[in-house]
# Entry
Amino acid sequence: MNNIRTIVGMQFGDEGKGKIVDFFSNDADVVIRYNGGDNAGHTIVANSKKYKLHLIPSGSVYGKDLIIANGCVLNPKILIDEIKMFDQVRLRISGRANVIMPYHIELDGLQEEERQKKIGTTKRGIGPCFSDKVNRSNAIRMYDLIDEKTLMKKIKENLSSKAKLIKYDDIEEYAENIFREYSGYGKFLEKYVCDTGVYLDEKIKENKEILFEGAQGCFLDVDHGTYPFVTSSNTLSGALCCGCGFFPKDMKITGITKAYVTRVGEGYFPTELFDNDGEHFLKVGVEYGTTTGRPRRCGWFDLPLMRRAVLLNSADSLVLTKLDVLSGLKKIKICTHYKINNKTTDIFPDNLEELKHAEPIYQEFDGFEDVDLSKIKKREELPEKVQVYVNFIEKQLKVPIEIISVGPKREETIIC
# Structure
């Protein structure tokens, strides 16, 4: 069971998955990205150097075999820029992965402007690209990108079908410009494109250590998240099955959660703070989006949210990140239940209309004033007040905490 592991975000993304994937990548043979696009980002600190990655799996820092699977959508320009960050990249890209084109990015911005209820899209073209995929409307895959004849044909068909939405001065000239640019990307990336499902199957049969790297977080899932304030793909642990063309019969699922909660963009957030404690999380946690640079909304740890996340992902273990950010607070709160229409519930509601009326019920804990956790290596060495906080979360969720992160560096990690 230990040779196949999936890393999944349990909140709204930005849980610190990059560091944890990096941590496990050291022992992995293959690291696989199975969902999302460059709207999600990982920040990794390795050998005193900071890497901000959006598409390439985190194992790239350590020269591992990498897969970008069919469940991803790719902006080839950004992917090539990331490949060039490294001296050598052992990368395989699924030929079935869909390609983000310039008109997807244009549409993303136009659609957000027209929405009365903004969803806070990153305007990276993710939604329109996934829309083309599920509409079966001449979506361009990596196999098409490396086939110039097919690429030109599909570019013209797509521009023609979108002419009512995007106004072009000269559609033929625009198509030629896109073709010249993107056929060049295709030539660069062609050597990486293959049948990743067959390759992955070979590695599993060889009993290699496999690490699946999920993007974003549980409650941005298009089916189970805070719809419509979600991404355009499935972000749960189960998404890897379709996202890779692989059904894991035996696998460990590791859920990543911050010691508090953050969210970028619009959408429901029951424990959001608008006071000095929220400012503490923002400043001390350096809570700014890797992709957009936008400040993240911050709030107290939310047990009802996490109970739903454990249910949705079948988490075998948890990783608690950014525990060190709580240092300096006099009092710390955990939301244990919601009060909704005079009724109390201990789990995030399935009906999101109810969430609009949710009032968090908190339990208060003594804070970790002026405690430096970054040098601690063992869980039992944590100060008593910190242990009370961590133990309470573990007991309430009935899932063991496997790792505690007490700083951004790889070595600032407690293995429980």
Summary: Residues 171-189 form the longest helix (19 residues). The CA atoms of residues 171 and 177 lie 10 Å apart. The mean pLDDT is 91. The longest strand covers residues 331-340.
